[in-house]
């Protein structure tokens, strides 16, 4: 079966995002290189507009809607960053947006979503089905549902993060990418296949929610209960119908990190690199720092996926 996206889709997304999304910096750290014995390149999507890579996929999807779809508006369900990405993209494109968000989402993410002019509807992530709620809204109001990961335009948009990284670094041996539903990693893996064909793409999940690892190893999509982890952007229950085949074909392995290792990575980012990284955003960094696959002597890419964390919450993690 053909994969949902090709490298051409990522190039097209990159053209749409030109002058709209930030070309985020690629950072180095002497300390990280000394600690790991590797050359590590951090793609800093915590410094992307709205604070995460999600803006890339959301804008790429919304920009391609037909005029009548744009007029009726869009809706989405998200634990936070996809909501902000859709809200900001909608605002820039003059589209109405309604976001279905868990009531325990970080306050900073809900406030930012409303701040972009979107309507926010809350639900209980442990008892209610967000897809059903958003689906009903889409039907009742004629809005177009923008899924957070299982959508070709979203996947292609996310892949532009790795495209930019490889353009800057040249070929790499390893690329660590976090995953929830797998939109980011599937886009990045398609970019890697084209721009650095021998690069091994390694997925990183929270230990408490390793559905992707189980799915990859069993060769079928494994569904789990909503995991309890501080990595709120990776609390997904299953990979997507479109993302899983890409992960199966192009991702070398999936490793896990604990919440304690995430906190250590967030601390390191703040103390040594002067960067605010949210727990989910620190997954790939933690895996590289902990050498979850051997990194010594290698050229290693790390996608820092986001930086949206309540400052008070961050302070408690860092204390
Ligand atoms: C959404 C998100 C992820 C997970 O992305 P998927 O495309 O669902 O795999 C990781 N990190 C951050 C910061 C996110 O917002």
In short:
The chain is α/β, with parallel strands linked by helices and 319 residues long.
* Radius of gyration, whole Å: 18 Å
Which class best fits the helix and strand makeup? Answer: alpha/beta
What portion of residues belong to β-strands? Answer: 15-25%
The main β sheet shows up as: 6 strands, mixed
First-last Cα distance: 49 Å
Shape descriptor reads globular
Poorly predicted regions are none
Mean pLDDT: 95
The succession of helices and strands, N to C, reads HEHEHHEHEHEHEHEHEHHEHHEH
Number of helices: 14
Side-by-side strand order of the widest sheet: 1-2-10-7-8-9
- Can you count the beta strands? 10
What compounds are bound to the protein?
pyridoxal-5'-phosphate
Proportion of residues in helical segments: 40-55%
Model description:
The chain is of the alpha/beta class. It has 14 helices and 10 strands. It has helices spanning 7-17, 30-36, 54-63, 67-72, 81-93, 107-115, 130-141, 152-169, 183-195, 211-218, 243-250, 259-273, 283-289, 311-318, and strands spanning 26-27, 39-44, 74-77, 97-102, 119-123, 144-145, 174-178, 200-206, 253-257, 299-304. It has a 6-stranded mixed beta sheet with strand order 1-2-10-7-8-9, with helices on both faces. Strands 5-4-3-6 form a 4-stranded parallel beta sheet, with helices on both faces. The longest helix has 18 residues, at 152-169. The N and C termini lie far apart (49 Å). The mean pLDDT is 95. Pyridoxal-5'-phosphate (PLP) binds at residues 52, 54, 81-82, 148-149, 158, 178-185, 233-234, 278, 280-281, 305-306.
């Amino acid at each position: 079966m053909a994969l949902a996206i090709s490298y051409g889709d990522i190039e097209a997304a990159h053209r749409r995002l030109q002058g709209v999304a930030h070309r985020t910096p690629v950072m180095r750290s002497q300390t990280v290189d000394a600690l790991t014995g590797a050359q590590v390149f951090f793609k800093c999507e915590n410094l992307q507009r709205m604070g995460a890579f999600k803006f890339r996929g959301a804008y790429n999807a919304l920009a391609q809607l037909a005029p009548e779809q744009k007029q009726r508006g869009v809706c989405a369900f998200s634990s936070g960053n996809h909501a902000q990405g859709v809200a900001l993209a909608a605002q820039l494109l003059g589209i109405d947006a309604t976001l279905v968000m868990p009531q325990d989402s970080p306050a900073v993410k809900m406030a930012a979503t409303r701040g972009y002019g979107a309507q926010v509807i809350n639900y209980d992530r442990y008892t209610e089905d967000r897809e059903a709620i958003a689906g009903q809204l889409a039907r009742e109001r004629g809005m177009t549902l923008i899924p957070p990961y299982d959508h070709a335009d979203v996947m292609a948009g996310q892949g532009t993060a790795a495209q930019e990284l490889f353009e800057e670094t040249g070929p790499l041996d390893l690329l660590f990418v976090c995953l929830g539903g797998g939109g980011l990693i599937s886009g990045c893996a398609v970019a890697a296949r084209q721009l650095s064909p021998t690069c091994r793409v390694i997925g990183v999940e929270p230990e408490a929610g390793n559905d992707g690892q189980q799915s990859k190893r069993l060769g079928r999509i494994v569904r789990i209960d909503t995991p309890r982890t501080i990595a709120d952007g990776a609390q997904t229950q299953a990979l997507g119908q479109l993302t899983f085949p890409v992960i199966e074909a192009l991702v070398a392995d999936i490793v896990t990190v604990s919440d304690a290792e995430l906190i250590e990575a967030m601390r390191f980012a703040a103390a040594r690199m002067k960067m605010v990284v949210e727990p989910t955003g620190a997954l790939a960094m933690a895996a590289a720092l902990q050498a979850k696959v051997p990194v010594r002597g290698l050229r290693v890419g790390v996608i820092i996926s986001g930086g949206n964390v309540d400052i008070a919450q961050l302070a408690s993690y860092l204390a």
